[in-house]
Amino acid sequence: MNEVQIWHNPRCSKSREAMKLLEESGVDAEVVKYLEVEPDEEAIKAVLKKLGIHAKELMRTKEDIYKELKLAGVDDEGVLIRAMSRFPKLIERPIVIKGDKAVIGRPPEKIVEFLKG
User: Fold this and answer.
1) CB count, 10 Å around CB of 96?
2) Model pTM?
């Protein structure tokens, strides 16, 4: 396994920018296309721990599925994590993971600072 991993959506411009930044920095990252290989609940919990955030902070609240599932009023971590596992489109992207830390690359420049630290 590579030292750096990115949860990547090739259709997302921010995710593509993140990939470009990694390449320009000479980082050979393991690419996880999380929409194709859906992360299980344990993987999402691990990422949340590395990010140091709550499940709601990892969610794309403007997605139609977020509204359809009526997640706006939900604070139960288990319910939110389960939703992200079943509908990975809800997961904010890109996420870059290095060791026991991670960062959401929005804006993508946050990744450069993260890799330096």
Assistant:
1) 25
2) 0.94
Instruction: Indicate if 56 belongs to the active site.
Output: no
- Are the C-beta atoms of residues 102 and 47 closer than 8 Å to each other? yes
The one catalytic residue in 5, 11, 12, 20 is 12
Number of domains in the chain: 2
Identify whether the C-beta of residue 5 lies closer than 8 Å to the C-beta of residue 47.
no
Residue with tokens 């393991």: 30
Residues 29 and 59 in one domain: no
CATH number of the structural domain spanning residue 3? 3.40.30.10
Model confidence over 53-97: pLDDT tens digits? 999 999 999 999 999 999 999 999 999 999 999 999 999 999 999
Whether the predicted pLDDT of 1 surpasses 60: no
Parent domain of 109: 1-34+93-117
- Same domain for 80 and 97? no
Structure tokens at 18: 């993140």
The secondary structure of residue 29, as a DSSP letter, is: P
Q: Measure the CA–CA gap between 90 and 19, rounded to whole angstroms.
A: 20
